[in-house]
Request: fold
Amino acid sequence: MDNYYVYGLGNALVDKEFEVTDSFLTEKHIEKGLMSLIDAKQSEILLQQLTAAYPIKKQAGGGSCANSLYALCQFGGTAFLACRVGDDEGGRFYCNDLKKAGVDSRVQELELSGETGNCLVMVTPDAERTMNTYLGVTADFSERELFLDELLKADWLYIEGYLVTGENARAAILKAKSAAKNANKKIAMTFSDPAIVKYFQAGVDEVLAGEPIDLLFCNHEEACLYTGETDLDKAATKLLQVASQVAVTRGAEGASVYTGAEKISVLSPVVEAVDSNGAGDMFAGAYLYALSENWPVEKAARFACAAAAEVVQNFGPRISQQSQQDLLNKFKS
Reply:
């Protein structure tokens, strides 16, 4: 492709989603509402336990950044994903899923061996998602996977927070940030999960050091955890030191976007949520799409909230083609 709106860096994971009880999480000593990293053996055992007790609800190519780029492309945007998969069934599934979604990648050129990562997503009756992730070969994400010539075709660099857990991945992020700055590209990042700012804050600090990035996505809990504040407005004031614009999702209450000069808050449509998995990713993807259309911040935030509200009504991080078109028709009119 000649150009992209967003060039993304993210973990490539095959999501396997299950509807579970709170007692299952308690029995297995799984921390609810967070992403926890597990190894291959733990993943194998947990998958066996899940499939023995519950039917799988959904399988899809995932990863926080990838989910956002899927959304962006579904709405009509263009994107490239720098990622890493193995030479296995999961890797082939992931590459085909990317292609079907319209997200470009050059992962096939890497000739990687090993096992593609997976994310076991457990959704409780309150629609909260809990994730146990085995990174597989994406744990070794490095500068080798960047393809910076593709970044030079894009308007935005988009960074997934989950990547800060790896030393080589952080080095790759910093190299991509430097290339983006030198080429006058805009830079966005998502915290991705409360666990990232709770357990890997030093990595986040390393990635955010230097000049403020252009846009930061986070939810209310992540904003407060990272800044140590309990009041969202005070947390946002601190976050504006590392990002020129901060978009904070607040679940069913909507979202607030802080630009320094103003705070713009919008409400989310009232819906019955069954699965919160992918809601934040959808918000980011839809928001970036709206920016590509030069929509004002308030309209972009309302559109992103409406898209996220569609996601939570179904299992999995995607919405139907019809839902996409209905949303676009509503907001473009």
